[in-house]
Amino acid sequence: MATVQMKVSPEDLSQVPRGNERIPEPGIMVIFGASGDLTKRKLLPALFHLEQSGLLPEKFAIVGVARRPLGNEFAADMRAGIVEFGGVDASDPRLDRFVEKIGYYALSFDDASHYAGLKAELDRIAAERNIGGDRLFYLATAPEYFAPIIENLGAQGMAQPEQGRTGIVIEKPFGHDLDSAQELNHQVNAVFHESQVFRIDHYLGKETVQNILVFRFGNGIFEPIWNRNYIDHVQITASETLGVEGRGPFYEKAGALRDVVQNHMMELLSFVAMEPPSSFDADAVRREKVKAWRAIPPVPITNAVRGQYGPGVIDGQKVVGYRDEERVNPESGTETFAAVKLGIENWRWAGVPFYLRAGKRLRKRATEISIQFKQPPLLIFNRMQSGGACQEIQPNLLTIRIQPDEGIALRFGAKVPNTPNMSVCPVNMDFDYAAAFGTSSANGYERLLLDAMLGDQTLFAHRDGVEVTWGLYTPILQAWANKEPEVFPNYFAGTWGPDCADRLLERSGHVWRNNLGGKS
Ligand code: BG6
User: Fold this and answer.
1) Which one of 148, 290, 383, 417 is separated from 467 by 20 to 30 angstroms, measured CA to CA?
2) What count of other Cβ atoms lies within 10 Å of the Cβ of residue 86?
3) How far away, in angstroms, is 357 Cα from ligand 1 center?
């Protein structure tokens, strides 16, 4: 298919205001569970990138907290992580200065007697470095420690200090069903005011996800057609080629619906479906998202399907089935694939199906949203074709490529030149982030860490949103827990998932768009 590339001119880029980012106040970031992978792979590289961009305050410290007694080797390990996972040159002189800001404190998360010592250590660092009272606590631990850590921070007066601003960042999962999410929210809000709480969904840090809002609300031409009158259906796919990557025990308890659909995919759906907020501030944006989710009626169990991968081939390599993965039950009933059909009962979307699917070990890595428009009311050209280049007129399709190959493509029909009749062929207008801006987008954590330090909650989940989305999926999870899947595994690794996912769409006369990453 022909593709028209769109490129931003250097003149246009030079007009974009730069350097207007705010820099947070001096403070200390305290990372609980700092010996885990996330800190080394994502958080520290992101913080160093912020430092490189001049977006961290001069007076700043990072304190890793975990159970293991570690000394200076923690900072050395983080340095190695920044180089390996952040793509940073090991000889960058800023790196040594940055590493000096990293400290470590050993503590048992659920031992209340350890927290006075932590408080004293933070006060000592703050006094020594003239940092002031701002603290950001980051919970990167297993979820069972969220509650004891929060309670102990509260008991030591660290949540509401006399001086400075305090926030708490919580990594997903925020609960594993509606009851546990409500309980966690209750525990968090007993100690921290909601305005201090930053629930991270790293999808909201992705440039392409934020760009959905700019695309819709920063342009005049799309909003008039962004509704049931013009849109036939919406597909959102989060397809991974990776398996569970050694996270068997975690994944056994999670499964695809909890791991990705209830959070990342629902965030994508909300950005596509929400009404225009009156401003881009946290309250306005989050209120509209919650309104969109609340308009989704309960999902009949027949509109949710699950799958589990068996052995197969990915990128030419043989891979084992899920049940043969490390530390996975050989008779596991956990789903590694989930698909749902949702409706949104409001004036904009009534009658438009939203299909969501997510899975591991699928054919291709791609997260995409495709919005299929309705056919023109009368297909005059179709009838005139006889043996032209294209036999069928395809409906307009807007594809938002979240990752990889970030961009947006619009498919439309064009006349094939020099043909005797009006042959119509689909072509694409394609906007490609890397080609247009000459840069690839960051991993999401930079934006989110900076916003949390600045106290901006726009790109973080609100308690109401977490509870509404869990409310939607909990009945499905319960029904699945009560009924063993009939045949697992039900798809081969390296395919597009189980047949039942195809049937879910066929019932409404639709098919999954599997040309992901392609431009049509
Ligand atoms: C995480 C899930 O939240 O998101 C993982 O726990 C999943 O299982 C990951 O692989 C996907 O994130 P991304 O950014 O690679 O799409």
Assistant:
1) 148
2) 20
3) 14
pLDDT at 12: 62
Nearest CA to ligand 1 atom 8: 259
Determine whether domain 21-200 maps to CATH 2.40.40.10.
Answer: no
| 79 Cα–ligand 1 center, Å | 24
Does the C-beta of 443 come closer than 6 Å to ligand 1? no
157 contacts 115 by C-beta, under 8 angstroms: no
* Sign of the Cα pseudo-torsion (95, 100, 105, 106, in order): positive
Q: 260 C-alpha to center of ligand 1: Å?
A: 7
Q: Contact 232/226 with Cβ under 8 angstroms? A: no
Task: Note whether 21-200 and 204-506 share their fold.
Answer: no
- Output the residue whose Cα is nearest ligand 1's atom 2: 259
Domain ranges of the chain: 21-200, 204-506
Q: To test ligand 1's pocket by mutation, which of 237, 244, 264, 360 has the most ligand atoms within 8 angstroms of CB?
A: 264
* Topology of the domain covering 204-506: Dihydrodipicolinate Reductase; domain 2 (3.30.360)
Two structure tokens written together for 216: 């819709």
Mean per-residue pLDDT over the chain, rounded: 91
- Could you please report the per-residue DSSP string of 4-21? EEE---HHHHHHS--S--
Confidence of residue 152 (pLDDT cuts 50, 70, 90): very high
> Which atom of ligand 1 has the smallest separation from the CA of 206?
14
Quote the pLDDT of residue 62.
Answer: 97
Residue 518 banded pLDDT, cuts 50, 70, 90: low
Strand-pairing partners, residue 190, are: none
SS3 for 381?
helix
